[in-house]
Design brief:
Blueprint: H1 13-21, H2 25-33, E1 36-37, E2 40-41, H3 46-64
Antiparallel strand pairs: 1-2
Helix pairs in contact: 1-2
Length: 70
């Protein structure tokens, strides 16, 4: 998931894991890094990938709607 390299410091992945997946940060990192879990590389299901994309779009909309008033 090289696409996240530029934004992983901006997007709080632990927030994303908890809010959109009801999972822990370690669960998300295992899938992002392909860590071995029970002897197999952890991967996202197609449904989880859709949830991830939807979450990123949701966060993008929230950030895009912000402005600071003087």
């Amino acid at each position: 998931y090289l696409e996240l390299e530029d934004v992983h410091e901006v997007v709080c992945l632990s927030y994303l894991a908890e809010k959109y997946f009801n999972r822990s940060r370690s669960w998300l990192y295992q899938r992002l890094n392909g860590n071995l879990v029970n002897g197999k590389p952890a991967r996202f299901t197609q449904e989880e990938l859709q949830t991830f994309n939807d979450a990123l779009q949701d966060i993008s909309k929230k950030i895009g709607s912000l402005s600071i008033s003087y």
